Amino acid sequence: MAVSAMTTTDKQMDGLPLAQVSPARKRLSDGFGFWLLLLPALIFFIAFFVVPTASLFALAFNKSVAGVITLSSAITFDNFVRIFTRAIYYEAILRSVGIAAVVALVCLVLGYPLAYVIAKTVNPGRNTLLMILVLSSMQLDMVIRLYGLMVLLGDNGLINGALIRMGIVSQPLPLMYNIFGVVVGLVQITLPFMILSLIGIIKSIHPALEEAARSLGASRTKAFFSIVLPLSMPGILAGTLLVFALAISSYVVPALMGGWKVMVMPIHIYQQVAETGRWQFGAAIAVVLFVTSLMAIAVYHRAAMRTTGGRS
After folding, report:
1. Which intervals hold domain ABC transmembrane type-1 (predicted)?
2. For residues 289 and 265, is the Cβ–Cβ distance under 8 A?
3. Do residues 182 and 257 make contact, with C-beta atoms less than 8 angstroms apart?
4. Which regions of 30-115 does DSSP assign to beta strands (E)?
5. What distance in Å separates the CA atoms of residue 161 and residue 146, rounded to the nearest whole number?
């Protein structure tokens, strides 16, 4: 009786049998339900992303005045001219992009083998253990993890202390407060994101493809580079883009691991907004950072279309 009542209800719309409801009206009702489900996320996206981003862009084209954050109708490009004519700022752009690219490459080199092992591990217990090891690094707060790295890499840290005691070096190695320290910190933070992006795509590659290549005379290495690696390219691109976006926008890692000596764009944004109160100029640097990230997404989209034969 319950199934019959549910069927009768499903076959009616506004008191009419389904056969008497026009297809156009049914499509309108289905479309309304779809947009109704989408509405909360859409409102949240507009309120907390579109509006703040639009305000940021508008503020960037206002004259830089210390302590003033109100929008003005007067438009000026002085903030952007200052960014691209002063070496301290455009060098920070190049440094930010370079560090993010290096971090993405290092994460790919370190993360792909581990992702491959996890994806190919059939034993459930072993697979779960490896996944726990990857996810456990994300459970600690970022600042705590970075302080742990500082204990490890500092001038009086564990690594330098061990090297000096063994007589390998006479002076501490410069492992922190430079680009190397920032790269190590960013790799430690972003590596799990690369691994998680790769595991799913590697798992989706059917083992029969690699076995077919082996049966035709290809070695294990050749089968990997000709079958597995090309088919895992969507995961490589997605993980690289994610790591690049996280690295180029990071403030905490350059501040702690770079010791305010590695000047990247997020550091300049903080200084202009929090220290000098020049919100307009800080907004202009943020706009440049935002556009740089969009350019990275465009490059990713173009590369993804190439690897998928032109299908977006």
Report:
1. 93-300
2. yes
3. yes
4. none
5. 19
